[in-house]
Amino acid sequence: MSEFDTIFALSSGSVPAGVAVIRISGLQVRFALETLGIGELEPRVASLKSIRKQNNQLIDRGLVLFFPNPHSFTGEDCAELHVHGGRAVVDSIFDELGALDRFRFAEAGEFTKRAYDNGKMDLTEAEGLADLLSSETEMQRKLAVEQADGGLRRLYEQWNAQILRSRALIEAELDFSDEEDIPGSVSDQIWSDISSLISDMNDHLEKSKIGEISRSGFSIVIAGAPNAGKSSLMNAIAGREVAIVSDEQGTTRDVLEVRLDLEGFLVVLKDTAGLRETDSKVEREGIRKAKSELIQADLVLYLIEPGQSEDTYANDFADVSNMIIIGTKSDITGAHWQKDTDISLSTRSMADVDALLDLIKSKLALSSIRDDLVVPTRRRHVDLLKSAMSELEYALSNSDLPIEIRSEHLRISQDNLGRITGRVDVEDLLGVIFSEFCVGK
Ligand SMILES: Nc1nc2c(ncn2[C@@H]2O[C@H](COP(=O)(O)OP(=O)(O)OP(=O)(O)O)[C@@H](O)[C@H]2O)c(=O)[nH]1
Ligand SMILES: [Mg+2]
Fold it and tell me: 29 lies in a domain?
């Protein structure tokens, strides 16, 4: 595998389809177009052309585009062939291209990797693009497109420039320190700038939970004793039969998931095994899984059915911070529950199921998230931001250290920011990041 190879792939969805888009990128794109009988093309203008085999036989007619470097997605010469989306059409073109020397199929994410290598985007933009391709909900799309559009890159570049400026001022101060009238305020200015940068970073980091959750989805776990009505609630919210409902205790054993779109946010709703002591090995494993889901949940819906004492499993919920206690089967008891519940509902009559959804929305504080889209979205960003911030804090608070040493910590802070955007050596990360893509991107 070489970066000098010319790569090609199907960049549109799976065939058969109305149209298939084949993308080609690399040093020999012009040669490929010639070989396919397309010939010279006006840059960036779609032309209807015949596409032919080496032996001149017609493969298909379609729209073709040529993007000469550097003004292309990858920064290399690129071409797109929009052909009829039949398996044999696409295969036939692949056969022709694959037969050429130094031509091969692109790996997953290789077009984007080349775009990154050629300075077309930084790592956060590449990650944003990966998120955009896999986005399922409106909120995921908004976050992803903001990041792909350079939202994070611009912020981190701006911070990097601020630190650089402080370091330059320190250098200047060192150079002039022999002279008489160095304004002492320069140094004060440097450290007050660093201090306000730390506070900006802190505010930004506080939003990381929101970023990660919006990206990967809120996890909501339904828990409670057997027969409390957990699977019934899961089905009622999903609007379809996801889980088996039965009056037998211990019906659900595995963790069942549905992915829902709640006002543009991805919610992963999980139905779990009823919590109880049991001799069944399988059920015990289900209960173990249920408990581990509980700990990781962003929100727990704890269900109590009429006649059940609600504190049976209180211990299991000691670590759960965000919980709604729900009285189920209100059609039996009437709307008013004696016990200490946040809401009572019935999946049989569907009474107050909508009210529960409203309560969930308010618990997850979805509306507060909507406005701020420049947030760290990955663990990677958070870890490096924390390191960058702690270097600044170290430099700021150790005022007794020689100024050169303090300045060095500012430089290390810049390096950490540089690793987020990929400006500073990140060879070890690239494989992980670009393998997230599908082939053709
Ligand atoms: N009357 C009434 N019965 C309900 C309601 N919701 C569930 N049930 C009944 O309660 C029984 C248990 O329901 P499930 O949804 O299977 O309960 P579960 O909590 O998933 O039970 P396990 O999987 O065994 O832990 C079934 O017979 C349901 O028909 C309700 O709102 N009203
Ligand atoms: Mg169940």
Answer: yes
- Which protein residues touch ligand 1 with a CB less than 6 Å away? 226-232, 245-247, 249-252, 273-274, 328-329, 331-332, 346-348
Residue 345 CA: which ligand 1 atom is closest?
Answer: 31
Provide the domain count of the chain. 3
Q: Which ligand is nearest to the CA of 353?
A: 1
Amino acid at 270: K
Using one digit for the tens of pLDDT, what is the confidence trace for 96-105?
Answer: 999 999 999 9
- Nearest ligand 1 atom to the CA of 274 is 25
203 and 218, same domain (yes or no): no
Q: Which of 227, 253, 275, 345 most suits a substitution to test ligand 1, by most atoms within 8 Å of the C-beta? A: 227
* pLDDT confidence of residue 97: 97
Atom of ligand 1 nearest to the CA of 250: 24
Residue 192 belongs to a domain: yes
Check pLDDT > 70 for residue 335: no
Q: Please check whether residues 296 and 386 belong to one and the same domain.
A: no
Same domain, 297 and 423: no
Q: Quick one: 286 and 173 in the same domain?
A: no
Host domain of residue 50:
6-106
Asked whether residue 199 carries a pLDDT value surpassing 80, the answer given is yes
Is the domain of 362 the same as that of 303?
A: yes
Which pLDDT tens digit goes with each residue over 129-172?
A: 999 999 999 889 999 999 999 999 999 999 999 999 898 888 87
* pTM of this structure: 0.79
Same domain, 253 and 203: no
Q: Whose CA is nearest to atom 14 of ligand 1?
A: 229
Query: Within a domain: residue 119?
Result: no
State the average pLDDT over residues 33-41: 96
Q: What residues are paired with 314 via a beta bridge?
A: none
Closest residue by Cα to atom 6, ligand 1, is 229
Alpha carbon of 255 to ligand 1 centroid (Å): 16
Separation of 237 CA from ligand 2 center, angstroms? 14
Tally of CB atoms within 10 A around 430: 16
| CATH code of the domain covering residue 319 | 3.40.50.300
Residues 6+ apart with CB under 8 A from 157: 421
pLDDT more than 70, % of the chain: 90
- The answer to whether 242 and 254 have CB atoms below 8 angstroms apart is no
Ligand nearest to the CA of 225: 1
Q: Measured in angstroms, how far is the CA atom of residue 247 from the centroid of ligand 1?
A: 6
Chosen domain end from 78, 106, 134: 106
Q: Which residue has the higher pLDDT, 80 or 332?
A: 80
Q: How far apart are CA 397 and CA 7, in angstroms?
A: 52
| Average per-residue pLDDT for the chain | 89
Q: Which secondary structure element, helix H or strand E, spans residue 81, and what is its range?
A: strand 78-85
Buried b (16+ CB within 10 A) or exposed e, 271-307: bbbbbeebeeeebeebbebbbebbeebbbbbbbbbbe
Residues 221 and 341 occupy one common structural domain: yes
Report CA(303)–ligand 1 centroid distance (Å). 10
